[in-house]
Amino acid sequence: MKNKISALLLGTAMVLSAASVASAQEKLDKTVKIGALSDQSGLYADLAGPGSTLAAQMAIEDSGLKAKGWTIDLISGDHQNKPDIGTTIARQWFDVDKVDTIVDVPNSGVALAVNNVVKEKNGVYINSGAATSDLTNAQCSPNTVHWTYDTYMLAHATGQALVKAGGDTWFFLTADYAFGAALERDTTSVVTANGGKVVGGVKHPLNTADFSSFLLQAQASKAKIIGLANAGGDTTNSIKQAAEFGIVKGGQKLAALLLFLTDVKAIGLETAQGLNFTETFYWDLNDKTRAFSKRFSERMKNSAPPTMVQAGVYAGLMHYFKALEALGGNPHDGAKVVAKMKTIPTDDPLFGKGEVEPNGRVTHDAYLFEVKKPSESKGPWDFYKLVGTVPGNQAFTPLDKSACALLKK
């Protein structure tokens, strides 16, 4: 009997010991895989794409986590601006490749679809490329952080400034997918709230080459402001062709509701000069942004400085790594990691101080810029002059407590 009791106690001890070891191993799990999902070859490739993958790699290197025992792997994918391809890649990454976190995802239609997959798989999604404010309102998730910019910010900073400057009648040229719809919706709200009027609009296919029929409708509307609710190659093509039609010379003003550094490069200062727009990052903003941008451009094949999307990938991951370090390991519970990210104030050299709101929206300062005249530019990427700063607590989508009340899996 005594021997049986001893054997039972020994077996119990071994089970407890094994459980303790397993628990310790779980706590010490410091292996994480990141997937940079972007447009690697289409109209958003210059503003995100390979540059976003490089920004992610730089964040891994700068985090210092590898020296502290972490293993961090990075893979990349091309969603081709198609939601079905984006979700297929995301599922493959979570189910087969054991990815923990997806970053970037320019294209709001793809982003909203991937957002649902990440929530289902309990991963982490740090959005930098997509603009739709629905990611932190109607479709907010406990697994998503929206870092760089959104349609609410673009509408309220650029749209409001133009209406107050006398641009009280608008016609929209809108990309026909989720991003364009959200940007037109949010800007329309700002225009009407400030006493303006929307006199018309037209939707164009994504990545179209010929804007002539759309621009003729905008010109015929006689609206003071033609709001370009598009991005990337669509923005550059519409601005170039508007110049060919003499729209600005005829007295109407173009509102580039989303403009990137790479867009200005593609358009040229001669055509882009005088455009007002809003961004949350510019490479030449201060000493810290210049230092990062120098390192980044030295590693880019075209030597371009980072766009705000690429900067957002870097800053978002740096904050994510702070949360992982604070947790001490086990990066595989996405909702838990995002919850930790929300408890730590954001503070990085590219966007400055801010915070992650309960709905996942990151607040930081936004800047109203104007494109310089050719005579004002002192270098190949010296394009912007600062017009004004919008504090983070005013720039971004107010927390919609009713829409985000059920932040549960």
TrEMBL record:
Pfam families assigned to the protein according to its UniProt record, in alphabetical order: Peripla_BP_6
Keywords: Amino-acid transport, Signal, Transport
Domain Leucine-binding protein: residue ranges: 31-372
PANTHER family named among the record's database cross-references: LEUCINE-SPECIFIC-BINDING PROTEIN (PTHR30483), PERIPLASMIC BINDING PROTEIN OF ABC TRANSPORTER FOR NATURAL AMINO ACIDS (PTHR30483:SF6)
InterPro entries for the chain: BCAA_transport, Leu-bd, Peripla_BP_I
Full protein name: ABC transporter substrate-binding protein
Keyword flag ATP-binding: no
Upper lineage: Bacteria, Pseudomonadati, Pseudomonadota, Alphaproteobacteria, Hyphomicrobiales
Position of the signal peptide: 1-24
Family of the protein in this entry: Belongs to the leucine-binding protein family.
Keyword Cell membrane attached: no
